[in-house]
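Pasting as-is:
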Amino acid sequence: MFEDIANAIAQQDYTTANQFIHTLKQEYPNHPWLRFYTAQVEEAQGNLESAGKIYQSLLQACTNRKLLWQSRQALRRLQTARSEQHKQAIAKALAQPGGKELAAFILSAIPPEQKKQAAQTLAQTFQMDAYNARLQLPSRGWRLFRIGAMGELLYYSQELQKGGIPCFCAPLNALDTLNVFQVQYFRSDGETATARCSNNQGQEGTLTFQWSEATQHVQGRVPIFEEIIKTNARGKRQPKTETLDYAQFCDLHLPQRQTILRLCDH
């Protein structure tokens, strides 16, 4: 019954194969072999994502051993094809101007109800398990996910955005253009503020700005370590590094000035 479809696929006559499939679908809409040959045509025409979903559904619902074996083989073939496509796309991206510059890859917050599907996309893109992929997706704010070459990360960000995952990448040398000033105090006069601050070389001065220029603020903390000596169970003294305290930071971002005003409790 399906020999004509198989012969057409073997001869790479996918137009004829599609015609046979369309005809038989009216009589056998959910027949496993018909779905398998549909996936083969999709695969041959470069629709790997669509073909993979059909092969995967056959593994979950089919009991025919021959069909299961061929579906597994097809999924392995698709995985190899995707891997090769990724390698070629990344190589092309790296060859672009600035493609080899060091960059940061950032994941943005995603609603909890979208995390299950997003985790599968992230896992498939980066070849990791879905459980750990879900843990990497932030519920609020941003998460630094990876450091690498700009071209490679740009390719991955485009792939994730297609899957509905908000993300972006930026070159690390962009940080060199930022002015970071350590604030000692603010003096405010209505909408205008003046910060007494110092730069990274310890030079002091003032910066006057409008409060409306501070479009966002970021709070965080940095651990302060200390070297201590501890006695183990055998009475032997051993050096150990422990966290003594945390330095609290608050950054005000003034993007129009490419400036960060940093406050610290130390």
